[in-house]
Amino acid sequence: MTVTDKRRILYSSEASYLHTGFSKMARETLKRLHSYGKYDIGELASYGHPHEPRGLNNPWKYYGVLPVNQQEAQLYQSNYNTNQFGEWKFEAVREDFKPDIFIDTRDYWMCEWQITRHKGTLDKCTPVYEVCVDSEPIPRAYIETFKQIKYHVAYSEYAKYIWKRDAGVDVIDIIPPGVDTHIHIPMDKIALKKELGLPENVHIIQMVARNQPRKRFDRVYESYQMFKKKNKDLARKTLLHFHTYQSVSYTHLRAHETVLDLVCRLLLEKKKHKKEQNNQS
Fold it and tell me: Which residues, at least 6 apart from 34, have a Cβ–Cβ distance to it below 8 Å?
């Protein structure tokens, strides 16, 4: 390792060359940090192979988390729940890279082990966390764990408010997950509504996520029904739009569009299969 006068930042997330949400966020963040030219940057890459060219060819130090031989595979699998997120390499990577700043921007269960079992290691640098908080109240485990950390970043104004209200945590900044404006180009909302045949004053609630049970499309739909009952006037000019791109396990979504309502129902494949069997008998 070459020592320079630059501040050293170790960023922990899913491998930046993959196509998950966290990977895309890591890629854009690392590219931006590197473009400043004033940091030495390291990437602790979950689901990344140490010999993967897409990781090694990046202009920053790359540490893949996956095992490279049978002995490492046994160690990796011995505590897969957290080793997949980097725990089994955490101490060695910190010792090799010696960061001044450590950053993690994932879900609670992906990084809580860093604080509960490696706090001494974190105390050797300045840790910064941007933990996903998108509902309330914040679980007690989140609060007890992350109140030990001084510096927090939030995804939204809502998350900042909830952290302060429930945990007394002062968020230092808000950094929302961004979009690539070369791909997603902002367009005139009124013109788009007109093109789709929608009233100009219509409100659109949208959920975009992979179609799997833990994303809880069903809960969003149930909440939307509660909203409609309590806000009948507003509900008449409100749409619920689900966008999903992958069918996982035994679930998929089926959408039915009405004039001012997009209703998405979660169907169980097992029930569908049973119905088809009944129809055939």
Answer: 41, 59, 60
**Per-residue pLDDT tens over the stretch 13-48:** 999 999 888 998 999 999 999 999 999 999 999 999
Asked whether the beta carbons of 13 and 46 are under 8 A apart, the reply is yes
Cα-Cα end-to-end distance for the chain: 70
Least confident of 24-33, 61-70, 112-121, 257-266: 257-266
Measured distance CA(241)–CA(204) in Å, rounded: 7
Residue 87 CA to residue 92 CA, distance in Å, equals 10
Please state the length of the chain: 281
> What backbone phi and psi angles, to 5 degrees, belong to 185?
-95, 120
pTM of the predicted protein model: 0.76
Quickly count: other Cβ atoms within 10 Å of residue 91's Cβ: 12
